[in-house]
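Q: Entry one of two.
A:
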Amino acid sequence: MASDPERPTLSSLGKVGKSSGEVTEAEEPLLNGGHNSESYSVLAAILPFLFPAFGGLLYGYDIGATSCATISVESAELSGISWYNLSSVEIGLITSGSLYGALIGSVLAFNIADFLGRRRELMLAALFYLVGALVTTFAPNFPVMVIGRFVYGVGIGLAMHAAPMYIAETAPSEIRGQLISLKEFFIVLGMVAGYGIGSLLVDVVAGWRYMYGASTPLAVIMGIGMWWLPASPRWLLLCAMQGKGNLQDLREIAISCMCRLRGQATAPVSIQVDEIVTELSNIGEEKEATFGEMFRGKCLKALVIGAGLVLFQQITGQPSVLYYAASIFQTAGFSAASDATRVSILLGLLKLIMTGIAVIVVDRLGRRPLLLGGVSGMVVSLFLLGSYYLFLDNLPVVAVVALLLYVGCYQLSFGPIGWLMISEIFPLRLRGRGLSIAVLVNFGANALVTFAFSPLKALLGAGILFYGFGVIAVLSLIFIFFIVPETKGLTLEEIEAKCL
């Protein structure tokens, strides 16, 4: 098709608002010189993080609240229902229903992410959260309750896909790592809130209904907040470059959105937008992605890095270690350990503190040092736990130290950095689909480990099982050392140009 001489081209848009001296290296802006420091207002940069992070808060809250809700719903005196006599399979469906919904949400995101955009996908996630919570809260019978759990899980899948993308694409590169890591902090904060509210309501008649109902105001706030926030400027520019709208109009909308996101006047923001356009033009983002491209070239490398990280995040034993927390503390003589909820709250507070440390240092130390150091600590703790169950059962202090070391090191490394890296590493035009595959791997591995834990424990014993997790952690350390790049301080476009 012949080009329209009146229509602005990608290259001309990339030069709008720049003097000739500022585009002398436009041929290879990323490989030759890097980017100018982004100017931004801290307040303006934090607000676009806050509402997407509510998606993580609601995910964490569901984990904490469900652990208490299952106790409430099984009680003949306190459940407030006639169908409380549930089998272990039915309780398992209540517990894991949101996880299976999240898997479906991840598959759904693969097809709709680039069509809807990050902002509208998060609005849709908030709607699923709200409907799922309401259906669960007012469920008249067990099948309806499971449907509600599944619908809520679809919201989890969409939110955990779109939230890191939206934050990554709207945050200034200097604090991008901190803001995306803060989303993990919000997940843990939600877990602690779920355990806390659940422990307060577990002795209330029909308390499980109130536990699930408590999440509805947050879902409403998330939906309204995402409606108020601007669209991702990078998504708008991608649409412009792929011919899905008028280039000049979408550029102006992107500048307007960037003004709100940075809290800056139009002139410096327009320069930032034009730099992004020029950078995207030079790394070939004009072509619309095909399914086959997911498994070739740059995206294949990004897929190996991202999916590998979230796979190791799940199969290095985190759910299994936490499963033993109450019994480990009980063996060591801690009175609070008789109450699994109290143990969960204590560990949740430790996770909050360690995640907070990761948030503070991630953009100073970088991603690789935190991953290598944290996973090394996990290796030590897993072998200590295995040794405790095989040889050192008369030294419960070893198990307590190993448990705390594992939780702390996980929250310094795989916890926040896994989600951070998958939001950074995929090229823009493949980011929606690439991230959905990574999230699908994450939830799929979570479901597999949760399902396989009890049979493996019965077959191998706890000691051998923890040794096995330790070996997997060593493999993950090798993977990180040789495969995972450092992305600290780079723009998303620079990561594509230099790391893939």
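Q: Entry two of two.
A:
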Amino acid sequence: MPHEEPLPFWLVNVPKDQWPSDCPEFLKECGEKDRRIIGTPDAEYKRLSWDEVTDIIRINRVDLFHRVPSELRRYRQYTHRLIKEHGSIMNFIVNQRLQWKTMTPKGRPFEFKEDIKVLYNDWPYGIDEKIIHLVVWTKFTLDEDPATGDLFPEVRKKIDDHVRQTFHPSVKPEHVIWFRNWASLKSVHAVEHFHVMLYDPEEEFVKDITNGDIPMIAKVS
């Protein structure tokens, strides 16, 4: 049988009748890691289980979180358009998603609800579909040790306390975990945030905690 050349990464997971003649603009600046992921057929991608997710967070290897290949492609296309339309991802997050008129906090960290907003992660990682991936956005900063890039212990404790008070009454403690991305992995740097993952929570609780939010991945075709 003749040897078949592998498809260019930008054609993988795209129906043949929709193949572009050249690499799309939104994929031309992809790094090697994203090219490798986008060039993987969805059928070969394995979603992470809850146990795998919690292990990754406990050993602080959040760089091991990846999106499903076709969803990463959609994410790249979407953010490329956002930057053109809104000037930056940050502008879109603040003005459209958070709808905050001011970024000045009302009080100390976690003191006022007005300084915090919980929304879905618009483009979640390739994880078990029973896992709900939320982002907790804050107007206040979460100070980190400049030497290590990790949160100061007292800040980590404040987040722990907030997560416990907010989520544990409605979700089993062993089904709640949080993490904060390394600076090098953040797609939005200028607005402080951390991530919370919930395993198989009640739909009504998630609807209530996010004020009925719908992630962008569910809105964008």
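A: Comment on entry two: The mean pLDDT is 92. The two ends are 38 Å apart (CA to CA).
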